[in-house]
């Protein structure tokens, strides 16, 4: 076995692991906000919001990540992507507020469910 091949066999995993670590720190989620309206959607996770004066627009779901992408994305990026998808769907329904329901936690992705409302006149 040549010196080069021995070097690769000893350091190959270290280089691969270091590459994954570097990539995960600077990656952005796939789901990006798609409109100015989506940027203004308010996401609420508390039970203190009164939606009795709001118009229900529909259920929304936001998800980011797959079993193979969690190596490249931080939990922050996965959560941001899921929230971005919920905001995009809410804006498309004509809503301005999302009341989040219990999140579904996975090791490799983030999925959020919510109800979209139009609260602002």
Could you name the key traits of this structure?
121 residues; alpha+beta; Translation Initiation Factor IF3; 5-stranded mixed beta sheet; 5 strands; 23% strand; elongated
Description of the molecule:
With 121 residues, the protein is of the alpha+beta class. It has a single domain, classed as Translation Initiation Factor IF3, CATH 3.30.110.70. It has three helices and five strands; from the N terminus they run H-H-E-E-H-E-E-E. Strands 1, 2, 3, 4 and 5 form a five-stranded mixed β-sheet that branches. About 6% of the residues have low confidence. It holds the Pfam family DUF4156. It comes from Vibrio chaetopteri. InterPro entries: DUF4156. This is DUF4156 domain-containing protein.
Question: Brief overview, please?
Answer:
It holds the Pfam family DUF4156. The protein has 121 residues and is of the alpha+beta class.
CATH homologous superfamily title: Hypothetical protein apc22750. Chain B
CATH architect. name: 2-Layer Sandwich
CATH topology: Translation Initiation Factor IF3
Shape, per Cα inertia axes = elongated
């Amino acid at each position: 076995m040549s010196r080069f091949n021995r070097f690769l066999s000893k350091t190959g995993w270290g280089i691969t692991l270091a590459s994954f670590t570097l990539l995960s720190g600077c990656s952005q989620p796939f789901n990006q906000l798609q409109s100015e309206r989506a940027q203004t959607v308010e996401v609420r996770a508390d039970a203190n919001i009164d939606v009795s004066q709001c118009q229900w627009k529909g259920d929304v779901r936001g998800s980011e990540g797959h079993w193979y992408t969690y190596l490249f994305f931080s939990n922050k990026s996965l959560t941001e992507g899921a929230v971005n998808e919920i905001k995009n769907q809410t804006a498309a329904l004509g809503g301005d507020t999302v009341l989040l329901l219990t999140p579904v936690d996975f090791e490799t992705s983030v999925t959020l469910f919510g109800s979209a409302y139009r609260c602002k006149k």
